[in-house]
Fold these 4 entries.
Entry 1:
Amino acid sequence: MRIVHYMTVIVILLIIAAYSAMRTQAPQDNRRISVDEAWVRPALTSGNSAAYLTITNDTDNPVTLTSIAVDFAAMAQVHQTIVENDMAQMQQLENGLRIGTGETIRLQPDGYHIMLMDVQQVLNEGETVSLILTFDNGETLSIEAQISNNIVNLE
Ligand SMILES: [Cu+2]
């Protein structure tokens, strides 16, 4: 009878150990790239717009945002605005936008942005559009961005 009880205890301990092992592995699933606070400037057809968002890289390796696909503009590129002698200039990041391990990068007016050229439909404030971000580790993220004149972010 006592032996049976010991066996029961051992089996229960094994189940707890297996469950704990599964639980400690779970956070690995959370190691990922995440995007927050995505918004896009309103625009008229054939005009330009820009998308702004915050990217966090919680994976174990640096990643690079290499391309952006949208169906509402002819082209989407990662740009950087550089101010030189009071003149703002935009440059395409030919090699994409690198996000280090554990790093958060905020795309915002006068910094990094996703340039949206030759908009194919009117982008009205309050509506949403979707963007597909592709990273060099093969990961793609489909995100929804609010069309907004984001005054707070303009400061
Ligand atoms: Cu630009």
Note: The beta strands are 33-40, 49-57, 63-69, 73-84, 87-92, 97-99, 104-106, 112-119, 128-135, 140-147.
Entry 2:
Amino acid sequence: MPLLAPIRSLGLRSSLRPAIRRLRPAVETSQICRYASTKHPKNFKPPTQDELEELRERTIEFTRREITHDVAQATDHKNEFPLDMWQKMGEAGLLGVTADEDYGGLSMGYQAHCVILEELSRASGSIGLSYAAHSQLCVNQLMLNGNEEQKAKYLPGLVSGERIGALAMSEHNAGSDVVSMKMTAKETDGGYLLNGTKMWITNGPDAHLIIVYAKTEPEAASKGITAFIVDTTEASGFSCARKLDKLGMRGSNTGEIVLDNVFVPTSNILGQINKGVRVLMEGLDLERLVLSAGPLGLMKASLDCTLPYVHERKQFGVPLATQQFIQGKLADMYTKYRASSAFTYSIARAVDESYTNPEIRTQDCAGAILYAAERATECGMDAIQCLGGMGYMNEMPAGRIMRDAKLYEIGAGTSEIRKMVIGRAFNREFGMR
Ligand SMILES: Cc1cc2nc3c(=O)[nH]c(=O)nc-3n(C[C@H](O)[C@H](O)[C@H](O)COP(=O)(O)OP(=O)(O)OC[C@H]3O[C@@H](n4cnc5c(N)ncnc54)[C@H](O)[C@@H]3O)c2cc1C
């Protein structure tokens, strides 16, 4: 099926999970390749293109059923996440794509994660963003850095959708320069007391489990940061000071969270003490890669709302789509989508297929999201322009798509920082720091 053909209504009401599971027959023990991948789940086998296409179809079925135009519009207009969506996504098997099957995950890797995030974001940018914060920033970070006990304790609830996950690095005065964070973690009997605030935390107002970065040795700067698993349901002193009112991604609940003498047991240190930057960096490249699928979905959404409109609406006696200025915009939107998609999926495929010794290039992961994010905002703007007056009306999705897309030039590191990261990666290859 051509990628941008209208979505077929498959009419299937069954949950995605059994269907996706059928896609991934259990690997015969004799076929299991023993390897030491630190980035993929146990027994990971890269998915075939057929499996990925089927996964895309199944995700589209899910979004057609559960994230309709009305749901996406209401999420944006009310600035409220539909909380029952977590359980629905969990039941459908969407929440643990990169997690071990032992914990309920799909063990399908990063291409699959991109496919799901792309299609969720196509239906609703903000539901896609909250999904990514949960399944990539929290679930995948736990997969990559958690010990067996932590994974067994926390992953099943996150994968089933019973519990909501988040990750908290940024603070008011520590965004791009995140290692200058001020939150402290002081050792006490059996654990640490965390004090400080974190800003702009996706899912912060709802999260049950947050991976929080804090300074265990403030004077050691970047070498004194530790990552902690904070169970907000057990953490007295934890609060969400406010839910933030945003330009876009409305309904992806973003909060300022406060930790006031929150006790975290030693068993909830993620990774090693004072090695939080390693945990942070471990996740960043893959986070940039997977998140680049959010703008892909928004570009597709721009085309979804623009193509039918300009073919139906007539001005000067002919459909808008026959005017060269409009054709030029459609061509730009489509080409930007296709180029961004090829970039993201080629990198995701390289990561999955090199699973025995994962090859993750910083400049590729940062480049994929840098490119896709800027193109998605442009596509959103073009969609508004093609729709004219209706593009400016909130009853149409074009404005929402443009507002949602802009976030990807800021969140998870800004475009400017991504360019610095790419430049520095080249510097390192030339032996410079
Ligand atoms: C909706 C939303 C959701 C978010 N979700 C999360 C989350 O779940 N968890 C989390 O921890 N954080 C989250 N963030 C925070 C996000 O990662 C930061 O906003 C981002 O890293 C930028 O930091 P800042 O806002 O402090 O901007 P600043 O660092 O103050 O930057 C302001 C401007 O200056 C530019 N700039 C900064 N330094 C340089 C430089 N050295 N050279 C050139 N230009 C520079 C930036 O590119 C930007 O254009 C979220 C943010 C938003 C808006």
Note: The first helix runs from residue 16 to 23.
Entry 3:
Amino acid sequence: MTSAMNSQSKILQSRAFLHGGPADLFGTGFTTSPAWNLLADSWNDLKQDEYMADGGTYRYRRYSEFQVDSTDRSVTVLPHVPYRQSREYNPLNGGIDRWYRAIREDIQKNSAFQDALLSCIDVLAPLQPRSRWTVKVFQNRIFAKAGEVGKPTPEGVHRDGCDFVLSLLIKRHNIVGGESSVYSSDGEQVEASVMLKDGGDFLFLDDQRTKHCVQPIARLVPVDEGYRDMLIAMFAP
Ligand SMILES: [Fe+2]
């Protein structure tokens, strides 16, 4: 483990969240590698979320679950299952089985994708005495459509119901808004508000000790397509 990772572990322990650019967590060159370009391009191949209780047509996604092990540095896809979130954590869309297309096989094996997950469990290693994590992963694209606001978190201030959650920006395209806020565990106090601007910018949250929310997005140039691409990875034992 590098000293940079050690310092990130300390910050995560004391502050309950990390925020930074790609070099802070994933190493230099992370977002300039061919693997990153292939990973980012796969956001053009997501499917519309049909489970939006607000009737929105602005969210596209894929979903798979993985087992990530720091001992042998393996990232193994688990059998495809629906995403299920209790209504306690998501009153809007929770409480039902939501079936999404699986993350593509080439992306499951993509080295930038696997490195992102492994980097997170490296940060957790000094804090949690386990080498193996179950990780629920979403590829999300939120469109800012003409006449429809794009809501990255339609459920409002919330927690995801896991132990730790990575929000990794892949790309912002022709949008304004989308600022991320980290709240205290009761959701009453804003601990930080940050903008994930460039690919590789991230938030890594202790989901037990924080809540979070992302502001809506709108098009910058109204006649052109606008969207925000995110990788969300939820870590639990
Ligand atoms: Fe969330």
Note: The pocket of fe (ii) ion is lined by residues 153, 158, 160, 212 (CB under 6 Å).
Entry 4:
Amino acid sequence: MTPKTWNQAEYWGLGYDFDPQWTLTPTQQALQAKLIQVCATVLRPNAIESDRHLIYPRKNFEALAALGLLGLFVPKAWGGLGENHVCAAMVVETIARYGCPSTAMCYTMHLGATAAALFRAHSSSSLQDLLQRLDQDVLIGTLSYSDPETGSHFWYPVSSKAEQLDDCWQVSKKASWTTSAGFADWYIVQTTSPEFDGNYADLSCFLIYRDEVQAEPHKWDAMGLRGNQSGTLLVDQVKVPLDRMVGPKGDGTASNDEIVDPFFLLCSSACWNGIAMGAIDIAKRHVTRKKHVDVGMRVADYPTIQDYFGEAIIDTTACRMFTVSMGQLMDRLTNDCDWSIHADLAALPRSPYLSWYWQIKFAAAKNVAHVCDKMLHACGGSGFKKDMEIERYLRDGKAGWVMGPTNEVLRQFVGKSALLGFESLDYWNQTVNERVLHNEVKKLDAEGKRQLAESLLQQVAAEAGVSDSTVSDSTVEKPLVEAIA
Ligand SMILES: Cc1cc2nc3c(=O)[nH]c(=O)nc-3n(C[C@H](O)[C@H](O)[C@H](O)COP(=O)(O)OP(=O)(O)OC[C@H]3O[C@@H](n4cnc5c(N)ncnc54)[C@H](O)[C@@H]3O)c2cc1C
């Protein structure tokens, strides 16, 4: 195997012996080698500046565009590289590990937005035009989902809506977090559907351009991923042409399950794995060079330090292989990321594996924090200083756990669905938990039950005044009244 190089010299971190190169095609391996060089010369020096001065990494995106990476999985016929899911994970991991974790996260969001556009580009001239210019015009995309009122429940956009006017959509979106907000050139935003009737599962997506959003980048100042600029975003009753709806009306849930979740979870896991590997690399360089003259040993000669590295490498390899394996599954399900399968709007092959994507993100985000912490310990006080860069990797890696879907939410989803079934997840808060309801009512004495019954009957009467069907369809009324009786 050719040695890994860095600025024409041998790489100072772990070599290819510790990378799963056999999962990449020769073309992908060549792309990776080129990308590592760009990381050495452009991305990494910019990462230090981005972190220090909160600079958005647009220059890094220009370097990625020069390699054709903004259109990584855009079909070749549309001028893209026509690459697959495994390649996407490799590219994100490589950027995070050798170059700039903030850029890797902005790029993850760009890939998520690109995938959402490709998913429904078949009959949209707006989307096709955009997708063919990504690299040439360095058009950075992102996903704007999280709502200020629902926090990390990004699938629940209560502050957003869309309406159909005569010949356009009027889109209103309020997002609490959007990576690249104000810097991206285009945004995929999710709102409730036009003619929304109270069912939050009825979601639609829109393509919105830079001059149609209001952002507040001056407010961004965070512990890590400081170049990521994940600020607020406002789309204030913006009128867009009809073909800027991405997919049909009400396609949001399908788009989430088939594209946004799988791509975000795959690529962000790769980002956390890349940060973990980056920290191991930096720590290796330090411990193999630092000597203690009194005992004549390098730090790397202590078994304690060797154990730190052994465990960090094994745990990170497990996360990387898990992530690659999900990329391989997605490739197999889609004939290597062939977007033409989605000309059939009902084709949703990635969706049934949601719980697997949740698991890779949980594992990778949990691992990165632990590994960076241990690598800092291995470097001692020297690691605590900024010039070694390991403290930056540690701060950047901390974003993994808290980014939605957060690790608390993910382990709940996995555990709850395993024990109680997928329906029990109740994303949009629509199913009554009868056990909880009965248990709470049981705690009331007769007077308490009477008061509750009266207040419920008043509510029923008020709702009946608004809409008879709402009351008669209510899933709450009957069991609760039975319980009280
Ligand atoms: C660096 C960064 C970049 C981001 N980029 C984007 C982006 O590009 N687009 C986008 O749409 N969003 C983005 N986000 C937002 C992200 O996806 C989450 O929405 C956000 O991190 C949630 O923060 P919050 O303060 O609202 O947390 P909250 O939702 O208030 O969570 C607080 C705590 O409650 C826990 N919690 C929440 N719900 C549950 C539950 N049901 N069960 C158990 N525990 C629960 C959480 O895990 C957490 O511990 C980004 C976030 C970060 C940190």
Note: The chain has a mean pLDDT of 95.
